[in-house]
Amino acid sequence: MVTYQRFSCFRRALSSSVASDVTVPPNSTVFSLIQPTGRIHLGNYLGAIKNWKTLTNSPSSNSRYIFGVADLHALTGLKDAKLLRQYRYEAIASIMAGGLDPEKCILYHQSSVKQHTELAWILMCQASIGGLHRMTQWKSKAQSQAGSSVFDDKVVTNSSAGFFTYPVLQAADILLYKSTHVPVGEDQTQHLELCRNLAGSFNHSFKSDVFPMPQTLVTPTKKVLSLRDPSKKMSKSDADQHSCVYVTDEPDIIAKKIRRAATDSIQGISFDPVNRPGVSNLITVVSGLLNKSIEDTLKAMSSVKDHKQLKDFVTEVIVEEFSEKRRLYDELMKNRDHLEKVCKNGTNRANEIAERNMKEIRRCVGLD
């Protein structure tokens, strides 16, 4: 059993954390989805949910916030129906446990609003093969699926068409609600550029101004890396489960994983992602959880002198952040009826907006 009193010398820094000043202009529509991949880990939390909560807690006048679970996108990789059903609810429970209030936003499953796929086909007819071929993510996913270290004709032949057309459905997700702002990680900025290109192409082709040009809200926290191998992203699919901290992990498990995190042989604590990726990754985690810049985080950690103290500090921050969220997640997963009610309400609200916009889109293309 870990005794957390030993971390008490760091509590002053924890209590001094402040909320990030993240806002959008009045009358904005903010939209984002996450894939249902089971329990939410630290990277998911910092890369999406925490940012969503900050946005909804700092609302701008007459703005709309639409968040949900990208269960249609999950079909590109998940082939187990039972698991997908479970993961969909785990994702909703994780989002709510992470602090998102469904009274302040629309929260729903992507597949429950059929207009997503209708608009995806219309945009598919606007997209070029060349434009899709330039997307780097589908190439890496295709290589991963094929177990190949190179991208060649064999990989393309055996790749799922879903990987290739994924960005078009993603664009449809965003444009369906005439979204003005999309909070994403750095690895999604290329997809957002394609989305803007498709919006512009549609508006030009049909001599309309149906779609606004959505702006990217890059997640404040940089990419969270594997605890064991900081050369790659934190991922649930990592064979070494000590590389990934989940929101639902007990304090002792969190402490164990952080103790095993990769660091280096350099004395002292400094932020240097190139030469000190392991140490820098831990500092990035603290920065994201405390809502501080890297510079202010290092100041808050001025009493941390070695790797052991750093890991104790990181453990304390994560345990403090996730303790209540873990309890709430467990409660929500035991109350499926409540989750169903939240999703049904979100679906109804999302469907109303989607259908209103699709009527205008159908008129533009002649399908009314």
From TrEMBL:
It holds the Pfam family tRNA-synt_1b. It is an enzyme of class 6 (ligase). Its main location: mitochondrion. One of its GO terms (biological process) is mitochondrial tryptophanyl-tRNA aminoacylation. It is found in: Mitochondrion matrix. GO terms for cellular component: mitochondrial matrix. GO terms for molecular function: ATP binding; tryptophan-tRNA ligase activity. Its EC number is 6.1.1.2. InterPro entries: aa-tRNA-synth_I_CS (IPR001412), aa-tRNA-synth_Ic (IPR002305), Rossmann-like_a/b/a_fold (IPR014729), Trp-tRNA-ligase (IPR002306), Trp-tRNA_synthetase (IPR050203). Keywords: Aminoacyl-tRNA synthetase, ATP-binding, Ligase, Nucleotide-binding, Protein biosynthesis. Belongs to the class-I aminoacyl-tRNA synthetase family. This is Tryptophan--tRNA ligase, mitochondrial.
